[in-house]
Amino acid sequence: MARGFESNGPGGSRARPTLLNGCPTGGRPLGHHRRSPSAGNRARDSTRSPSPRPRGRPRGDHALTSNTSEKSQRTLQAWTQQQRYAEAMIPIIGELYREHGVIVTLFGNSLVNKSPLEIQELHRIARVNVDPEIHITEVYPILAEMAVLDLAPARIDVGNLVTHWRGRSRSVSVADFVRDELAGIATGKASIRPNPQDVVLYGFGRIGRLVARILAGKTGGGDNLRLRAIVVRPGGPDDLQKRADLLRRDSIHGSFSGEVLIDKEENALVINGNLVHMIYANSPAEIDYTKYGIRDAVVVDNTGSWRTREQLQKHVEVPGASKVVLTAPGKGDVPNIVYGVNHHGMREAGAVLSAASCTTNAIVPVLKVVHDEYGIQAGHVESIHSFTNDQNLIDNYHRKARRGRAAPLNMVVTETGAASAVAKCLPELKGKLTGNAIRVPTPNVSLAVMSLFVEQAVTKEELNEYLLKASLEGDLQNQIDFVNSTEAASTDFVGNRFAGIVDAQATQAQGNHIVLYVWYDNEFGYSRQVVRCLEELAGVVMPNFPKRARAV
Description:
The protein is an alpha/beta fold and about 550 residues long. The protein has helices at about 35-45, 60-100, 115-130, 135-145, 160-165, 175-180, 205-215, 240-250, 310, 360-375, 420-425, 460-470, 525-540, and strands at about 100-105, 110, 155, 195-200, 225-230, 260-265, 270, 275-280, 295-300, 320-325, 350-355, 375-385, 410-415, 435-440, 445-455, 480-485, 500-505, 510, 515-520, 545.
């Protein structure tokens, strides 16, 4: 049982994590320290006459030094107190996730599997972005009350719960407030599906390996998506070892924070306890997934080799597969889905779907909220995009114009389908946007610059305030992030889980003309969107709480 919980045995009632003097500690109130011997001596000697001030020492230096020392002690104690709260939160967050499938978030940022320092940093970011400030000392009591309830799987934003609590009459106890806010999921239902949804990765490149990491990272938390197989072309005798090493290590995203083992007998990888078969094939037609115990699988085609409905349909014509999701823009009548904007009805949209492109996923959520509020008349989107592995290390032939030039040495002007793809997700913007791209010599994180003419004039301050609100609450808080730093640069956003990050410092507004800068991790942020599409197809999308929007 997680630390901080009491139990009356199997099936017994669960108690709140112990709060001593209102603090999550092992017996002393936060900020309390035993007196050291030297401190005791100073206390006993306090009646002695002060020593004469050394000659030549300016008056007031002693007081200044004393004040500085006291401030230093206060800041250290405050930080230590925050760390104790963060440490006390971890077992509660883990218990809620492992036993109930509850994902605890702070203004859209997951707190699951985070270290104390990471939890403290997310609270620091919240203090910067939210007025009045949110403190970890306010979050912990609400989290402790959540631990008492028998909750069903859900995403619960404790940051928004705190802001709601502030707006309630203090005559209501925290326990009653939390019970009232979460009444809709206090059902004890442990899983959304009776059985996990099987997932197959067709291809194991940049996106495939990140999707594998994300799916494996969800193991144990009411995991309703289960990676069952990876399909690759036949390799050499050490192929399985190489695939395992590529999953374990990544030059951009770092080491995988999980376990990857090799099962040679099954020709499989064991990723966080999940047995994942490695299937060798040159085309979908060669595969029978049922031989591996796979049924009704969603196949994620991350090769980009096939884009049309006719080509992609081959994935679902083999035994054991029911749907296919392409991790690239689909051609023709293939639905292009940006989760959060046009994902509703995915399950009824047929067996062939596309998760669009990384750039489309980055810009569409921001375009939607801007259009909803101000009305977009026309605009241009310029994607400053990191190079990808379809480019060349040195100059060589490429079927597309300019793409053959050396990627690490050049900025390459090229085309992008993101602007035209917007219309598939937001039909109301059809014909209103143009687009272009510049491939630049960085391996990851891209930037979309959107120059838009809107119907309603707006100032920079008003626009940023509106976009901040959209990032903190509402239907797109998991797609839109917000940064307001004069020192932000591209590497800061490696591993960012959002589809796009609005750079508030770069925002421009002059009457009806606005310019927005949106960063995006074109690998990891996009992979998170792909997984959200898989969850929607599997019917395992968790409800978000609290339900009511808060005022910013």
